[in-house]
Design goal:
about 400 residues; 3-stranded mixed β-sheet; 15 helices; 16 strands; about 15% strand
Length: about 400
């Protein structure tokens, strides 16, 4: 079958042009992770079991990626009761202590592994596949020997690594969508990929009440829906949006309602009135240490997120540049969450998700009441099922 043949191609085909990972040692502190995140153009930093901060002779250690960290991990960590009283001390915690436990979110994969194998790992819960970087010369591939500094992830043989995300895999499949015709024109309802077990919070409820849901949404690569009393979708608290905020967003989560938090993290730039409201509530709750952290961060960069005035014409796609010139981009959607309907086709939902850099798309009735969502994992289940489908015989 053409589909089976296509899915058996090497996963290294997806890695062409991917940059080498910049590592962070698992022994590093959360504060060091923040510094690297602020310098990076990426929302996540890979965490490794070996220390790349020192020059290590080839062959002395076995380096392995054990996870990844982003601003969402830091925000959720600071929101915990035991950390809100002394955030400075909490930031000195080892990053290994805040990585998700018991979840194979990051997994190594050989470059000659099949695309089908990569999809299987994703369906088991993997978010990022760590793969050796290869150069392609004259139609042949060879391992790339590292000539860079300690900022490159190197194995014993000096090979660097990149990683593939769920989004990378879905985008690759979309580029060859004709291979999978005609099923991609089927509705998401007929394909049974609408997940109705979604996490929601009412608009006027405290955002802090959704902390556990937000942590779970971060692991499952979805979002928390903000709804009104009639279950009509108003917006979403998205980990992909929080990933481009700074650590002071923890104060907003702890003090604001879900509706106000939507405005606070919208495109990463909080309105001044909400900043002042957060400060007032922090004072009332006697969280002076968190207030000091907020004042310090705001005075350094006026937030490490993008402001409304710094957003360009790319806003149509929900993309903004930070006003501190760091080059990081926000995938925050400035208006409403990305939505579709049960009769939307699979390919249409794929295009929506990829265009807006959204790992999930909300599914609604005509009256805007929420039905559920479609995730990248749900989409990949369809393509995985095609590998097992038998041709029709007459």
């Amino acid at each position: 079958m053409a589909v089976r043949t296509f899915l058996n191609r090497n996963v290294s085909d997806l890695c062409v042009g991917k940059p080498a990972l910049k590592p962070l040692s698992a022994a590093a502190t959360v504060s060091e992770a923040l510094a690297l995140l602020n310098k990076s153009n990426e929302p996540h930093v890979s965490v490794w079991s070996c220390d790349h901060s020192k020059n290590v002779l080839e062959g002395e250690c076995e380096c392995r990626c054990v996870g990844k960290i982003c601003m969402v991990d830091v925000i959720c960590f600071l929101c915990k009761n035991e950390n809100s009283d002394n955030p400075s001390k909490a930031l000195e915690t080892s990053v290994s202590q805040i990585l998700p436990k018991g979840n194979l979110i990051v997994r190594h994969l050989a470059p000659n592994s099949s695309l089908l194998e990569a999809i299987d790992y994703i369906l088991e819960g993997t978010q990022n596949l760590v793969i050796p970087v290869q150069n392609y010369i004259g139609g042949k591939s060879r391992k790339t020997q590292s000539k860079s500094s300690s900022l490159s992830c190197k194995h014993r043989d000096g090979v660097e690594y990149c990683w593939l995300t769920q989004e990378d895999v879905v985008r690759f499949l979309l580029n060859f969508i004709g291979v999978f015709s005609p099923i991609t024109t089927s509705s998401i309802e007929s394909l049974n990929i609408i997940d109705c077990n979604v996490m929601t919070i009412r608009y006027h409820e405290p955002a802090m009440s959704a902390l556990d849901s937000l942590t779970l949404a971060h692991v499952e690569q979805t979002s928390v829906a903000v709804v009104d009393d009639l279950d009509r979708l108003i917006g979403e608290i998205s980990p992909s949006t929080l990933a481009y905020c700074d650590e002071t967003a923890a104060a907003a989560v702890m003090t604001l309602s879900a509706g106000d938090l939507l405005a606070y993290i919208d495109c990463g730039g909080p309105p001044e009135d909400l900043v002042e409201l957060v400060k007032v509530i922090l004072q009332e709750k006697k969280l002076g240490a968190l207030l000091e952290l907020m004042d310090e961060e705001l005075s350094l960069s006026s937030s490490s997120s993008c402001s409304v005035s710094s957003c360009s014409s790319d806003d149509e796609l929900g993309v903004c540049r930070n006003n501190n010139g760091s080059g990081r981009y926000s995938s925050a959607r400035r208006a409403e969450a990305i939505t579709c309907y049960p009769n939307s086709s699979l390919v249409a939902v794929m295009i929506q998700a990829l265009a807006h850099r959204a790992s999930s798309v909300w599914v609604m009735h005509e009256d805007n009441t929420l039905i559920g969502c479609v995730t990248f994992k749900g989409i990949l289940k369809v393509f995985r099922s095609l590998a097992n489908a038998r041709p029709i015989t007459r």
